[in-house]
Amino acid sequence: MTPEDAYLTLPASIRLHYLDWGGSGGRPLVLLHGLASSCRIWDFTAPLLAEHFHTLALDQRGHSLSDKPGSYTFAEVTGDLAAFTEALGLERPVITGHSWGAGVALSFAADHPETPAAIALIDGGFVERSSSQTWEHAEAMMRPPEIDGVPIDTFVGYMRKWPDIAPIWSDQLKEMVLSNLEVRDGKVYRRLPIPDHMEIAREIWEQDTSLLWERVRCPVLMVPAIKESGDPRSALWTQAKLQGIETAKRKLKSATVVPMEDTIHDVPIQRPKELAQAIIDFAGDLTS
Fold first, then answer.
1. Of 5, 68, 189, 216, whose CB has the highest number of CB atoms within 10 Å?
2. Does this model's pTM top 0.85?
């Protein structure tokens, strides 16, 4: 299945790029990527969802082929999403976000409670980071490596050796990862500069999820990635996610949790079939 490549200029004069995967007869479903990612992370999952929903994958501001206005608060990003759904006439959409995109979906549901029919949070939006780690710790964890000017062959060679990526490596996955970057003269460059990346990271750290849950009125699907490792930091992070989910379940009117066992953070890449099925089971029978 080949999606329609499209652009939409919002009233704020920001042009957003998105992929329309079809399924126009079904309920609208909008897919949001994570920080420093792109709409292409959904390439494996979106075709499966398009069999049930009108599926659209959005490049959020600053990312991939969308405009880069230089400001990235949750209020601005959720404002983009509100304008996007309104301009395309997407009534009662299901908003599905991965990582930072999950935080955007949560914030959107809290700020626009009458708009989404449901939201799905894929390994993100669970943890109130500022209560579990200092900004100095979070800043060190979330700062990306300096890769501007690295030869593409060197970057790809390194990328295909990532322990969790090597078993599922393919030419399509290579294209998906490279969509996050600009390639010039045989070298790779970040589309989202590191200062902008860190502005978003600070927004993620400051997001008060415990207050947002109380303002959400629609059903919520939470899909945490669970992967055992010998790293105590990883174990602590998994524990923080599960504790955040328990807090959310106490505050939400309707919550469904589908853990993805033995799965890396990039669930849409590693478990597209399982993830699509979880979303279909959750959102396929929505009545409002």
1. 216
2. yes
